[in-house]
Specification:
The chain is α/β, with parallel strands linked by helices and 205 residues long. It is built from six helices and seven strands; from the N terminus they run H-H-E-H-E-H-E-E-H-E-H-E-E. The chain has a seven-stranded mixed sheet. Helix 5 runs parallel beside helix 6. It binds S-adenosylmethionine.
């Protein structure tokens, strides 16, 4: 992945719009009871009080954040808070936020979870945006296949039309056949935070 990435802490309502079809917060949290979720490339979300991570923690839902930027002692710069406000968050971080033990320093292709342990993976603004080399995608999607329960899914946003992708790597194409792939168009008017694009859902068969 190339440099120049900004790290953000997006609020719950962002996830509500891009991953949960704008259902009410209560409904979303009820539907996630007893499930284990992971946000890949979560940025500083686990430290933001208005995040989905925090909302899940408060409702006793296991929601993990995975990102190599996570350190044992987190220090935030004013620019981090600025970027978070720019992307719709409150712009405040707490290095000792409740539940931070579920913020894990790891890479998408080497996850600290057992086989078939995870119900749902969410990932925004990372895979097929910043990471698009096929050998790397193969490693990441293989890892998702390993940790997901049968019937579990990984969800990527924002993506162009899924059918526009033309992968060449044969192993990657074969691996993708192990998922049922659907897409949902997310449109929020002319708002740069939500470019008119798709959430693509890969459900493990
Ligand atoms: C553009 S930011 C997106 C952050 C957040 N998901 C959002 O929507 O604002 C990409 C994040 O992915 C993380 N990242 C980069 N490579 C990664 C990898 N291989 N596995 C997991 N996270 C990665 C970066 O550290 C960064 O926090």
């Amino acid at each position: 992945m190339s440099g120049g990435v900004i790290n953000t802490g997006r609020p719950f309502r962002y996830y509500q719009k891009v991953f949960f079809n704008k259902q009410s917060k209560t409904k979303i949290l009820q539907s996630l009871q007893g499930k284990k979720l992971v946000d890949i490339g979560c940025g500083y979300t686990p430290f933001a009080p208005d995040s989905m991570f925090r909302a899940c923690f408060d409702e006793d839902i296991e929601f993990y954040g995975v990102d190599p930027i996570i350190k044992e002692t987190m220090k935030f710069k004013p620019s981090d808070e600025f970027y978070t406000r720019l992307t719709g968050g409150a712009g405040k971080f707490d290095a000792n936020a409740p539940g931070v033990e579920r913020a894990l320093s790891a890479m998408a292709d080497d996850l600290p979870f057992g086989d078939e342990e995870i119900d749902t993976i969410l990932s925004c603004w990372l895979i097929l945006i910043w990471i698009n080399e096929e050998p790397e995608l193969l490693k990441i999607f293989s890892e998702f296949l390993r940790v997901l329960k049968p019937g579990g899914s990984f969800n990527l946003y924002p993506l162009p039309d899924w059918h526009s992708f033309r992968f060449k790597n044969q192993e990657l194409k074969t691996l993708l056949r192990q998922f049922e792939i659907t897409q949902h168009f997310v449109y929020e008017g002319f708002n740069l935070q939500y470019p008119p694009s798709n959430r693509v859902t890969f459900t493990k068969k």
